[in-house]
Amino acid sequence: MLDSERVKREYLHHYNLLTDGTVVMLYQLRGDLDHARAVFDESPDVLHYDIPEQGNGLIYLHCEMNESLAGILSALQQSEVIMTMPIEFLDDDRLRVTFIGEHEPLQRILNQLAEFVDIEIERVSEYGSADRLSSVLTERQREILTAAVEIGYYEVPRHATIRDVADALELSQATVGEHLQKIEARVLSGSDH
Fold first, then answer.
1. 85, 126, 143, 146 — which has fewest CB within 10 A?
2. Which range marks the domain in which residue 156 is found?
3. Domain identity same for 100 and 123
4. How many other β-carbons are positioned within 10 Å of the β-carbon of residue 188?
């Protein structure tokens, strides 16, 4: 559907299953949003979408569900397991998903999902043992925060600038500054804005 060289799905922030068998989703895309618009315009499965002209790639998508997606979401909806958001899209059409639940329901849902997708367990931990930053920051934000801390951006007095962090990560100052603002807002408020 989407040409991964031109536009990349980064996160699925939210989804709602509708009674008519369709789904609405809030996606985070990066790249050529005009390409995404063209693909969605041509897709018979896309019922409606909204990609703001100015924005950060956050899109609203209302579409038909294919059999695999319907099976996965139906299984999750009927389980005692919670799937946390956002879902992260990785390279090679892989997803990183965090599930919370007791051992037996988790094992049941993983067995059910294995009918639709290949599953690789990266980590198992006790609920609450994950640090707070991991639960409120995206992987990119954790990467930027780690670099900022390592080069002294948060030391008093400050030993590094946003430019230093940007140079270390080979990113623009604007990108790093925006991420650091979001990181600080999330950490200080304890919420996921």
1. 126
2. 132-189
3. yes
4. 8
CATH code for position 157: 1.10.10
Whether pTM > 0.85 for this model: the answer is no
pLDDT, tens only, 93-143:
788 888 888 889 889 989 988 888 888 888 777 765 445 556 678 888 888
**Which residues does residue 87 pair with via DSSP β-bridges, in sequence order?**
12
Residues 120 and 73 in one domain: yes
Q: Report the domain count for the chain.
A: 3
Q: What is the pLDDT of residues 33-91, one digit of tens each?
A: 999 999 999 999 999 999 988 777 889 999 998 888 888 888 888 888 888 888 888 87
Question: Which residues are bridge partners to 62 per DSSP?
Answer: 24, 48
Cα torsion 35, 38, 44, 49 to 10°: value is: 80
Are residues 162 and 125 located together in one domain of the fold?
no
Joined together, the tokens standing for residue 95 give 């997803």
155 shares a domain with 115:
no
Structure tokens at 145: 């925060």
The angle at the Cα of 124, spanning 169 to 132, to the nearest 5 degrees, equals 55
